[in-house]
């Protein structure tokens, strides 16, 4: 592994561990003054993080506002990381994950985001897209051995042209699927276009009371984690695993409204078996349209 590749992987690991400030510092060290424009962007991101941290400590903003900024910076940093390191290499990194499936610059690549309760449907959709020549990334096939789940999500959402979200009552309560959806929305805001395409397996997301019901369920899970802290402390156990689980649940809680608003205000295709044959061509057209928008930017 070259020094450049090693730095790339180290920064990705720091981002996945939510050590964004350390990732920014590591990136600036890797630059070593070679790119003033990229360094200026990193400095701006550092300033943005310092500002929201100070405002949260002073009680001027709540934790959710701070997390929104951190998520935006994480996605922007991943995007910048991929572009800069690719440009610096004399030879490209060995293809991994979604990048290994790119068959043509004109073919959009799709990451399928789903709840494991919906694995059967995700597999059917993956097979249908691949039969149409569309490269697909799905965790059941593409996660690297030993790779951290959060690192995998950050990597493939940044690499993909489209995130196809399979929406169900189960997926909307999954912290991982929530993270994938929110990162996709931030990617749209940063790069333009429509990175997130959604299809549904049930109509739970249309229920006006769903957000309240879902929040109650999330709060119950947070309460279960809170109850474990005294036990961990009594037994002198490290609480980092509890903290990460709790952070993911809070992120899901804070961002659920944005995800539901996007789903309710856009066309979401019915992916259930009775409508599958009719809606598959529409799904393919939406994926190919995303590639055309990319080229026009």
UniProtKB/TrEMBL annotation:
Residues 106-275 form the TIR domain. GO terms for biological process: signal transduction. InterPro entries: EAD11, TIR_dom, Toll_tir_struct_dom_sf. PROSITE patterns: TIR. This is TIR domain-containing protein. It comes from endosymbiont of Escarpia spicata.
């Amino acid at each position: 592994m070259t020094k450049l590749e090693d730095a790339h992987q180290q920064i990705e690991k720091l981002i996945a561990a939510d050590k964004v400030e350390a990732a920014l510092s590591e990136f600036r060290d890797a630059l070593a003054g070679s790119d003033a424009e990229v360094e200026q962007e990193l400095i701006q991101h550092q300033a943005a993080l310092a500002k929201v941290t100070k405002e949260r400590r002073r009680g001027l903003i709540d934790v959710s506002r701070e997390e929104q900024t951190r998520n935006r910076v994480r996605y922007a940093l991943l995007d910048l990381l991929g572009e800069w390191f690719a440009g610096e290499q004399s030879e490209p990194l060995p293809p991994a994950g979604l990048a290994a499936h790119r068959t043509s610059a004109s073919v959009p690549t799709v990451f399928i985001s789903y709840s494991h309760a919906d694995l059967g449907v995700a597999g059917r959709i993956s097979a249908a897209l691949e039969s149409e020549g569309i490269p697909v990334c799905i965790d059941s096939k593409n996660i690297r051995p030993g790779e951290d789940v959060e690192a995998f999500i950050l990597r493939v959402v940044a690499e993909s042209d489209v995130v196809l979200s399979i929406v169900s009552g189960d997926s909307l309560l999954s912290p991982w699927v929530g993270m994938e959806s929110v990162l996709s929305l931030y990617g749209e805001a940063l790069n333009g276009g429509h990175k997130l395409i959604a299809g549904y397996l049930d109509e739970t997301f249309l229920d006006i009371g769903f957000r309240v019901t879902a929040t109650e369920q999330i709060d119950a899970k947070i309460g279960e984690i809170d109850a474990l802290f005294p036990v961990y402390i009594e037994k002198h156990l490290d609480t980092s695993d509890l903290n990460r689980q709790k952070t993911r649940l809070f992120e899901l809680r804070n961002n659920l409204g944005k995800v539901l608003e996007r789903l309710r205000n856009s066309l979401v295709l019915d992916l259930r078996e009775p409508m599958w044959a009719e809606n598959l061509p529409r799904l393919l057209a939406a994926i190919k349209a995303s590639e055309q928008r990319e080229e026009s930017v």
